[in-house]
## 1
Amino acid sequence: MPALVLLGAQWGDEGKGKATDLLGGSVDYVVRYQGGNNAGHTVVVGDQKYALHLLPSGILSPGCTPVIGNGVVVDPSVLLSELSGLNERGVDTSKLLLSGNAHIITPYNVTVDKVTERFLGKRKIGTTGRGIGPTYADKINRVGIRVQDLYDESILTQKVEAALDVKNQVLTKLYNRRAIAVDQVVEELLGYADKLAPYVADTVLVLNQALEEEKVVLFEGGQGTLLDIDHGTYPFVTSSNPTAGGACTGAGVGPTKISRVIGILKAYTTRVGAGPFPTELFDEDGEALRRIGGERGVTTGRDRRCGWFDAVIARYATRVNGLTDFFLTKLDVLTGWEQIPVCVAYEIDGKRVEELPYSQTDFHHAKPVYEMLPGWSEDISKAKSFSDLPKNAQAYVKALEEMSGAPISAIGVGPGRDETIEINSFL
Ligand code: GDP
Ligand code: IMO
Ligand code: MG
């Protein structure tokens, strides 16, 4: 069966870019289905490092067609500069397909994102400031601008007028900012039309036809399960559905077509931005994870918050996504600890809780219950098979698998394409 979803099982930055790139050589299409340039996916090929924000990581595999689906929000200037950056490095991007139904992040959406965060003060979400939330809000409010609108000036002008009508009132009267001129926005957006035209396509039709022809399609999530607008730690989330169902709506493919759902799971936990994080560390262990793991945001350059592995979250990710497999990443980062704490449950107001509480209040009160697992000191970055790993590293992986509820089918032992142990084939 040819349709796979690959998504983050925690709060993002699990290593989705590397995992997608690894499979890219064997799949026909890689599709982004939600989010926008809030994502930062790092791919290391040989001695070359690529940071992708909007483009699917499959763009680096020559045989693969990268697709930006209808569920993605697209900042045209970011897309064009990402494409030209790759072209300068010799990457052929001509196969890219962009859904005409994808919504556009306009300059005013970026302004509203930044102004709103500033206005929230202490209560801010810590967004990436890329206009993601306001663009999805316009989409739901039915005042969004879609890629296809760039090809009808009259419709575009009417839609920008409608979108700015209320926003300009809010910007001038509430936030004390200057009003945004409709003409200027329309002119800027029209300036992208010809440059984007070669990529615009009916991606829903293309993908469904590809699946009928038994082509292999990989859906690559941005962000992670706990940042999902419905299933994450609301309101400290992003404004779309990275969870598996989002692949169906965000690409226009029915759930019966999805054969496998792979959760990318870091061997410890990180988070960027505000919100609860039960296993967060504020001591030298947290500092060491950040340093050894290189835990600094690809998009905003912010330090990532770091903590131990949380099995409650992994179990939750298995459930809400119907995960069939895990890809465990960054196991190498844990080399050198004598003992590694793993959160197996929470204590909430004196009670042991095994599953993620649905109540925000309870989650804010959750304290991790740790089990200590023995560590290892051998370098594992050259390991090619599971049996190459030291016994304690094997036991760590097995323990995580047991706690998390789905088989670990691959293990990352370094950032490079070949620094991966494959246990079960994904295809
Ligand atoms: P994404 O947003 O999920 O694609 O992840 P990011 O690219 O934001 O962050 C993951 C980071 O970990 C990147 O710097 C990757 O190059 C790196 N990485 C991925 N897998 C591994 C691994 O198994 N070991 C190590 N040491 N680094 C990894
Ligand atoms: P990748 O794909 C980690 C976080 C932001 C903020 C919240 C909302 O690299 O895993 P937004 O700008 O989306 O409205 O911000 O979501 N966030 C991410 N954190 N990795 C990401 O992407 C993220 N994309 C958004 O830090 O807390
Ligand atoms: Mg990232």
## 2
Amino acid sequence: MQDLINKITKRYQSDKTRLVDILLDIQNERGFLSRDDFGELAKNLKLSKAEVCETASFYHFFTFQKAKYKIYLNDSLTSEMAGHDKVVAALEQECNTTFGSMSEDGRFSLEKTSCIGMSDQEPAALINGIPFTQLTPYRVKELIADLKSGKELKESIYEALGDGRNADPLVHSMVNNHIRKRGAILTEDYKPFDVIETKLCTRSPEEIITIVEGSNIRGRGGAGFPTGLKWKFGRLTKADHRVIICNADEGEPGTFKDRVLLTEFPELVFEGMVIGAFATGADIGVLYLRYEYKYLLEYLNGVLDDMRKNGYLGKEINGYKHFNFDIRIQLGAGAYVCGEESALIESMEGKRGEPRDKPPFPVEKGYLGYPTIVNNVETLASIVKIIKNGAAWFDSMGTSDSSGTKILSVSGDCLFPGIYEVEWGTTISDVLEMAGAYDVQAIQVGGPSGMLMGPKGFNRTLSYSDLATGGSMIVFNHTRDILRDVVLNFMDFFIEESCGSCSTCRIMPVVLKDKLLKILNGYGVESDIADIASWGKLLRISRCGLGQTAGNPILTSLSNFRNLYEELIQKDKEFDAGFDLEKAVVESCNFVNRKPVFETH
Ligand code: SF4
């Protein structure tokens, strides 16, 4: 084992900031991590054993189980809506173990995980990093039988390969793109690297930034910060190196647009990074790819290799003097919070993905202390079209405060889940009509951190002044129990994903969930509704967006579906402890072998 650790740490020049890569490589080569190795690893990297342990214990996909096949089943809401429970039962039966454990023969381990970016084709699981979608008990039976008979995992894909470039030999995946509506970004009018060849040479970096500012594009990740301004700040900060990061860590349940962009248009995304580097003066580029999309890694590295061969990466790109820039792919290891830019940078530096206090902002002091511009996948793809067609072209689409188009990931109770590129200003009703969503009781816009709304809000428009969104939209018909099926699942998501640094974010989602359960179990009273309304707001003082929005499932359902809470509470009581006191006394007396005595009045 020592040899393997030495070989892998040498691969990264014993650079402690590459600890996540090193742990991933050890796990890849040996199948699992062992705490026994951490001492050696710490010595090689000049870290303490506790620091290695801290990182290794933070991420979902680091495993200490030796199973040959590690099965991670998505337990997010869209999976539950599509038959997740039946798949759980089938997996437990066929693999002969339970979730959270490994089979006795060491062949299978079963784990649950948050959204894996397949909400349009659930239930889905990752098996040793390979996605298996649209699982049913029958398919589980066939798949596990195949694996038991010794078939290779990739040969066990039980359907034809997916559409488009999912069938590329380097992807070889059964995932489908489900592109339902193409707009300015997803059109096929794109000639890879044409903008690098024909547009950069005639303009200065400052002119490129002026075009981006003129287009009024705002970051597509959800926060909506003006991209041109971010680039300008990055360029103005004095430093020896600057960094541009493409944030491909979309983890919001219901979101999968980056998966499709990276599969079908990776050149567009990488070209956007090169333009960003030219404009800001960055010489270091990193695509932070969520672990759930590891199946795209080899394919994406192939695209980067071709770019190097053709002079679109490396020294003096396309012959431009002093323009040196390259891109590497940093794989995440499974943590929703790493979608937050400073947490992502911590992760890239080999640490736990805990958000930093701000200021300083990454654009002043980010990755390894250098000014760092973090852009979303969709933003970078849009940039290429902006430079190609001009700022006015882009700004002419959308609304006065939201220019261009937005790529939506639509899932849940609709006939056509998938990707829709629409102009900003489109109404929710329009999107529901496109997706074939009927009998709609509610939709969740923007994932668990967004808003749950009923039909009264369906005439609202997607825009920064009305409904800003990172792009996830989940549809619920009238068969869904909004509080039990939706809100509870989202609260579990936040409880699971909190990094634990802030007491509000660590504690309040648990407290809120308990209150919700009290109401759902019939013990709620009016003051419980008042409590969750005010306690939910306490979360807003948390350090990062995850904690600040963790009360939203409760708060927005309370705003738009208050009647569902009212129907469940007891009207004739002012106080209820929330449990059956006599039953609890009997249970505890039984436990200590005493006879319960109750006073009678
Ligand atoms: Fe971590 Fe939550 Fe605090 Fe964000 S708000 S830093 S996720 S504890």
